């Protein structure tokens, strides 16, 4: 059983690391974003392996579902700014400097963690002597209606306010609104502009 | 556990939220015409609903507090007295009239500190809505007023939060509406810039605050390692209780405290976290500037007081020069020093009256920090005096700044600008407004017998008792410096010749709000005991 789990863990970890490497190695920004989604999936699987089903579901819903879409949107809307074929990696000694700084920063985080960590700590046991499960949806739900009731309600109000704010920022009343052109109309308009430019150039 | 009797304890916040939804809902039934008259009518209805509603909520909160009237125990029970009794038993005095109930689910305290802050905040929102009566947004009027109400509810929650998650959510509930309100005049480049800047800085500071909170939680949780899981580790009192136990040690907790101070420091705009304040204050619509610079700052200070005192009492340290220097009081003393110097010196060369008042608001935060430093005093009595001085300063500053920015809004509406030159000859063009603005400015400068003088006096006294006379000396010196730029305003009002000699007309709503604020300053200045008696009850707060 543990061997199987370790095997799965190894596969998932390889997926995460490989995908994360690909994010920084591929040239195309959109491909990088797609690799990032794969990485998020791997992290979701890792949560599942740790018996945190709720976190896994949330990871898939929010990171894979919402945040990656947001990243893709941002890339699409700023295509002209970033440029697709731009070489992202620096070369020469600057590359090695970058590698050294990154490695140093990573070491600052990882060395104290590894050094001060007690390994092989048995998981805390529940009342029946079985390993206590991490907070699942049931405990979270119970928390929301008991200890964290006020926080839950305030979070609801906060989301409502954010929605109202988004409407205020983004929505213009009809009298002021400009019609947004469809892609076809924009294309048509550009063609017409190009056509009218032609005689002027002659 | 939440009980049905906890609902009256949350009544002011609930009423604010209900009122916000009412304002939003009532707008749907208005005529959404395109003519200016129809638009004006729509704005007016939302504005007056907000204004009347806030007035009512203020009266209910005042009744609940029991500060002006407490129902005697031997009154015969009928419907009316029962309502009042239920209301007041949810107030800070509790059902017995002697002691405050413990915080609701450990997360929200309804003690005297919360109640006083609530009254100040709801009062500030009421005055702001009065200022907004004639300062109309060009689009989405209902949302404009509803966002003010949501922000007020968030501030009240901020003032009472005794738990990290609720405190963070309350900070966000306050900030998000304020970002939008600061940038409400989208067609005005300055307002849009203010909104964007406020949002970016606010998001950053929220992140810092969250880092601090998670470190504080982490230090509490590591003290519990291996034991049964607990759900109350985010409560401030628990963090203080578990401080120093367990493996994480004091370092993590100290780091968390630093991050918390930095995060809240952005919200209250103390140097060096003030970078956003002048631009935002200048760019935002003037009533919103008044609201941000007073209510949001007051709520931030109460939150900072509660966070530091409840969660990090062991790290208070001392602000006295010497070997004992350390802890958060000395850090706050340093921040106060920087704030006083930078705020007052940067205000000197300003040519825009609004920007000048913005810098003066930054400088005023330095004086309030001085009151927080009083927590370093060895005597419990002196600490309580410090808290009372802070609350007095907050209330007085709220009234004064609302009045000053309100008068400036009236001038800007009538003259069309908020440069100092636009104030030229105001005394000849509109004497009442000039007198009101003068009183506000004098109170900000700390001239007796206005309330600003006593506020500064109490704060200095608290700082002196805390063993930080060096800071008091600096504060006194910067007060003298501040006289220079405040008097520049007065010079423009009374001595400079006006650009035109035509009398100005000011909208009644703004005039009423400014007059109310000034009346408050004068009354509080002449009879400070009216409120100091109430403020001294804050020492009964559990956990303070």
Layout of strands and helices, then pairs:
The complex is a heterodimer of chains A (202) and B (544).
Chain A: H1 2-25, H2 29-49, H3 53-77, H4 79-82, H5 92-116, H6 137-145, H7 149-170, H8 183-201
Helix pairs in contact in A: 1-2, 2-3
Chain B: H1 11-28, H2 36-65, H3 79-89, H4 112-132, H5 141-160, H6 164-182, H7 189-223, H8 236-242, H9 249-268, H10 277-283, H11 286-311, H12 327-347, H13 353-373, H14 380-415, H15 426-429, H16 431-445, H17 451-465, H18 469-494, H19 508-526, H20 529-535
3D structure, described in words:
The complex is a heterodimer of chains A (202) and B (544). By secondary structure, chain A is mainly α. Chain A has helices at 2-25, 29-49, 53-77, 79-82, 92-116, 137-145, 149-170, 183-201. Chain A has two domains: 1-83, Four Helix Bundle (Hemerythrin (Met), subunit A), CATH 1.20.120.1200; 136-196. By secondary structure, chain B is mostly helical. Chain B contains 20 helices and no strands. In chain B, helix 2 packs antiparallel against helix 4 and helix 4 (112-132) packs antiparallel against helix 5 (141-160). The radius of gyration of chain B is 23 Å and the shape is globular. Classes of the chains: A mainly alpha (202), B mainly alpha (544). Chains A and B meet through helix 7 of A and helix 5 and helix 6 of B.
């Amino acid at each position: 059983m543990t061997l199987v789990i370790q095997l799965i863990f190894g596969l998932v970890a390889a997926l995460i690391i490989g995908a994360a490497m690909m994010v920084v190695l591929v040239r195309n920004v959109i491909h990088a974003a797609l690799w990032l989604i794969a990485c998020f999936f791997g992290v979701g699987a890792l949560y599942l392996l740790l018996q945190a089903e709720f976190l896994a579901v949330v990871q898939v819903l929010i990171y894979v579902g919402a945040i990656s879409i947001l990243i893709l949107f941002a890339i699409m809307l700023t295509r002209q700014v970033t440029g697709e074929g731009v070489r992202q990696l620096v070369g020469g000694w600057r590359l090695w400097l970058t590698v050294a700084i990154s490695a140093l920063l990573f070491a600052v985080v990882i060395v104290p963690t590894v050094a001060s960590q007690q390994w092989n700590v048995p998981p805390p046991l529940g009342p029946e002597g079985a390993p206590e499960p991490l907070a699942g949806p049931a405990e979270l739900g119970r928390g929301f209606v008991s200890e964290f009731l006020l926080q839950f309600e305030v979070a609801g109000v906060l989301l409502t306010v954010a929605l109202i704010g988004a409407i205020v920022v983004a929505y213009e009343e009809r009298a002021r609104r400009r019609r947004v052109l469809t892609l076809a109309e924009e294309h048509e308009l550009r063609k017409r502009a190009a056509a009218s430019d032609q005689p002027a150039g002659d | 556990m939440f009980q049905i009797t906890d609902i009256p304890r949350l009544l002011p916040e609930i009423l604010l939220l209900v009122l916000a939804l009412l304002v939003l809902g009532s707008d749907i039934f208005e005529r959404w015409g395109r003519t200016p008259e129809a638009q004006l009518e729509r704005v007016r209805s939302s504005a007056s609903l907000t204004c009347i509603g806030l007035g009512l909520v203020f009266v209910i909160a005042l009744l609940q507090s029991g500060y002006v009237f407490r129902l005697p125990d031997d009154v015969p029970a009928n419907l009316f007295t029962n309502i009042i009794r239920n209301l007041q038993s949810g107030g800070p005095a509790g059902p017995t009239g002697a002691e405050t109930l413990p915080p609701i689910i450990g997360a929200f305290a309804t003690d005297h500190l919360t109640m006083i802050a609530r009254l100040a905040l709801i009062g500030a929102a009421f005055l702001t809505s009065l200022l907004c009566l004639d300062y109309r947004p060009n689009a989405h009027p209902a949302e404009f007023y509803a966002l003010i109400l949501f922000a007020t509810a968030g501030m009240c929650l901020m003032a009472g939060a005794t738990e990290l998650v609720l405190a963070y959510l309350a900070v966000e509930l306050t900030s998000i509406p304020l970002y939008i309100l600061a940038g409400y005049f989208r067609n005005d480049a300055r307002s849009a810039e203010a909104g964007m800047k406020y949002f970016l800085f606010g998001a950053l500071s929220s992140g810092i605050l969250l880092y601090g909170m998670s470190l504080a939680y982490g230090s509490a949780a590591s003290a519990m390692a291996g034991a049964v899981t607990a759900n109350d580790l985010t409560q401030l009192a628990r963090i203080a209780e578990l401080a120093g136990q367990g493996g994480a040690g004091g370092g993590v907790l100290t780091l968390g405290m630093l991050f918390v101070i930095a995060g809240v420091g952005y919200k209250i705009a103390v140097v060096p976290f003030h970078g956003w304040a002048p631009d935002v204050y200048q760019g935002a619509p003037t009533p919103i500037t008044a609201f941000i610079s007073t209510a949001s700052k007051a709520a931030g200070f109460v939150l900072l007081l509660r966070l530091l005192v409840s969660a990090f009492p062991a790290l208070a340290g001392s602000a006295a020069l010497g070997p004992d220097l350390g802890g958060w009081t000395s850090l706050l003393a340093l921040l106060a020093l920087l704030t006083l110097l930078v705020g007052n010196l940067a205000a000197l060369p300003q040519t825009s009256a609004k920007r000048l008042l913005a810098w003066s608001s930054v400088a005023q935060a330095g004086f309030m920090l001085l009151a927080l430093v009083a927590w370093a005093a060895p005597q419990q009595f002196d600490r309580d005096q410090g808290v009372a001085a802070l609350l007095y300063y907050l209330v007085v500053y709220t009234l004064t700044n609302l009045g000053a920015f309100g008068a400036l809004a009236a001038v800007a509406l009538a003259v069309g600008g908020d440069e100092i030159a636009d104030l030229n000859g105001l005394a000849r063009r509109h004497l009442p407004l000039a007198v009101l603005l003068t009183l506000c400015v004098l109170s900000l400068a700390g001239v007796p017998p206005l309330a600003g003088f006593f506020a500064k006096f109490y704060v200095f006294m608290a700082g002196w008792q805390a063993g930080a006379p060096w800071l008091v000396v600096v504060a006194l010196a910067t007060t003298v410096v501040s006289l220079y730029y405040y008097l520049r305003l007065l010079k423009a009002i009374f001595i400079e010749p006006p650009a035109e000699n035509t009398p100005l007309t000011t909208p009644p709503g703004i005039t009423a709000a400014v007059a109310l604020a000034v009346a408050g300053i004068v009354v509080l200045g002449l009879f400070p005991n009216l409120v100091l008696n109430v403020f001294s009850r804050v020492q009964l707060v559990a956990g303070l």
